[in-house]
């Protein structure tokens, strides 16, 4: 795929004609005049007519993008020929920033329980967005704590596919299912469960919810025996979603990351050199992961196409997911549902389902709040554009910029806490991050994907990264799209659905900052880094 500038005159004539037609109906005489007047406007611009407006446009083809300029007034949007090529007006840098920041949220966590802030943002590519997310803090009794309580903190990102209903179901219920199992486990052990018991509780919560989505829904549909109920009950089963859930126990300072699918969590921790070290806390579970492929082939022997072209049965990329019932139901159930209600067509090579599981892989990490650890959680749309090291380095660069950020309206108390925890030890130039090392480095080893979009899709960019957003999650998304290359950022944000899916996925990013902050018991909306239209409520 290519990204280049198009000829000015041709684009201008086409756009002028098409835009007028779409707004003025079949006034043929006016159409001709409009087309010619737009072309004449180019000539005026070339001779220095300052009164003529010049705007950037994006020409969308089947496998390439062009940018150009349009001279003249009026709306710009038209499919220009039978080949499906489309011309639309490019967002200005200000409009691009407004779109990037539309859904951003930021919270200052003044609970003195090891977390000081978390930021999040979403950027849709599908319409509607198929990603979802959740954040929740649960206060629990704790006699070992001088304050009598400790916190369980949950953050989750859910990467939906084939629709949004499964990820929405996870947003509504996954923390509840997992929390219920954790509560039972902690109580049964006198509040000191083993690591294995906690991992098992999290897995049990995942699997119970998926059973409700995939299997119990079928039972309810059969009992109700009507299509309205079937449409509601089967929607989360017929679509699918990956899930990445983090659970932080402030009492033990242990962070558990449960991953089902190919969203990813990465820890940033300061090294002695002052730079940050990127440590993956999850592994991408896809058909391209050798361990996942081996697991599936062991479970389904004598099925050579159980993984084909890096996909389950040649169709589904993640090997673990919620929903996706067509990979879990027997052929008989699928055909019965399809005949009487709704279901997807059964794969011709389906033999021994289920092929896909919602059971997560759980990792445990001891957090060091006093060192200013942070964690980035994101759906695969981010990791298709940036490496682990680039993401952690970009957060490190953003932290450096916050030390003397002007115009902040956040409390001076929080500012002093932030400076004490994170300080400013980075050097100038480049990203303050150590070189890749470990199982999942920049080469994509260890089962993790190698980035292929963004600057890698358009070619190497010498412009580099930029820091201009008060919300660190938005900062990551901006740099994933092109950073200082404003034309590329604007182009990728201008693209409407479904064209945008050729170049970028839905993006959901959360960044959690750990630290020993002040204890007021409050979770406060950080207005400096929250979209004005969002007016979110702090979640406790």
TrEMBL record:
UniProt cross-references to CDD domains, sorted A to Z: PP2Cc
InterPro entries: PP2C, PPM-type-like_dom_sf, PPM-type_phosphatase-like_dom
Pfam annotation, one family: PP2C
GO molecular function, one term: [pyruvate dehydrogenase (acetyl-transferring)]-phosphatase activity
Gene3D superfamilies: PPM-type phosphatase domain
Domain of life: Eukaryota
Residue ranges of every copy of the PPM-type phosphatase domain listed in the record: 117-514
Organism: Parathielavia hyrcaniae
Name of protein: Protein serine/threonine phosphatase 2C
GO CC annotation, single: mitochondrion
């Amino acid at each position: 795929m290519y990204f280049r500038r198009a000829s000015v005159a041709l684009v201008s004539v086409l756009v002028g004609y098409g835009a007028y037609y779409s707004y003025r109906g079949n006034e043929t005489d006016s159409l001709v005049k409009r087309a010619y007047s737009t072309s004449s406007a180019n000539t005026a611009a070339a001779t220095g007519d300052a009164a003529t407006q010049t705007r950037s446009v994006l020409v969308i083809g089947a496998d390439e993008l062009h940018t150009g300029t349009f001279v003249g007034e009026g709306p710009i949007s038209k499919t220009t020929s039978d080949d499906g090529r489309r011309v639309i007006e490019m967002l200005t840098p200000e409009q691009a920033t407004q779109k990037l920041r539309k859904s951003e949220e930021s919270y200052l966590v003044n609970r003195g329980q090891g977390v000081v802030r978390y930021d999040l943002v979403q950027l849709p590519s599908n319409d509607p967005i198929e990603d979802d997310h959740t954040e929740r803090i649960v206060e629990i009794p704790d006699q070992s704590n001088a304050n009598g309580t400790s916190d369980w903190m949950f953050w989750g990102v859910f990467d939906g596919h084939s629709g949004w209903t499964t990820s929405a179901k996870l947003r509504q219920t996954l923390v509840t299912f997992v929390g219920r199992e954790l509560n039972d486990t902690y109580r049964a052990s006198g509040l000191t469960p083993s690591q294995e018991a906690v991992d098992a509780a999290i897995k049990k919560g995942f699997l119970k919810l998926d059973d409700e989505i995939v299997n119990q829904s079928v039972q309810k549909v059969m009992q109700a025996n009507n299509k309205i109920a079937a449409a509601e009950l089967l929607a989360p089963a017929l679509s699918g979603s990956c899930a990445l859930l983090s659970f932080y126990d402030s009492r033990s300072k242990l962070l558990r990351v449960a991953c089902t699918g190919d969203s990813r969590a990465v820890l940033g921790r300061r090294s002695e050199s002052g730079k940050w070290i990127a440590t993956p806390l999850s592994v991408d579970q896809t058909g391209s992961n050798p361990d996942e492929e081996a697991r599936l082939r062991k479970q389904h022997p004598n099925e050579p196409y159980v993984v084909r072209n890096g996909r389950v049965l040649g169709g589904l990329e993640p090997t673990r997911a919620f929903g996706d019932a067509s990979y879990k139901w027997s052929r008989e159930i699928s055909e019965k549902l399809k005949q009487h209600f709704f279901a997807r067509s059964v794969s011709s090579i389906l033999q021994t389902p289920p092929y896909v599981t919602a059971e997560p892989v759980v990792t445990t990490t001891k957090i060091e709040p006093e060192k200013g650890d942070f964690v980035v959680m994101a759906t695969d749309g981010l990791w298709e554009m940036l490496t682990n090291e680039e993401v952690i380095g970009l957060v490190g660069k953003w932290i450096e910029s916050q030390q003397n950020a002007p115009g902040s309206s956040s409390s001076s108390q929080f500012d002093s806490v932030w400076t004490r925890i994170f300080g400013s030890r980075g050097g100038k130039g480049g990203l303050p991050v150590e070189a890749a090392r470990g199982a999942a480095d920049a080469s994509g080893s260890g089962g993790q994907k190698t980035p292929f979009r963004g600057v890698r899709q358009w070619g190497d960019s010498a412009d580099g990264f930029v820091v201009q957003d008060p919300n660190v999650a938005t900062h990551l998304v901006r740099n994933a799209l092109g950073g200082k290359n404003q034309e590329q950022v604007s182009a990728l944000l201008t693209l409407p659905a479904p064209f945008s899916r050729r170049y970028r996925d839905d993006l959901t990013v959360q960044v959690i900052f750990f630290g020993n902050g002040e204890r007021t018991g409050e979770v406060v909306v950080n207005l400096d880094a929250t979209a004005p239209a969002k007016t979110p409520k702090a979640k406790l």
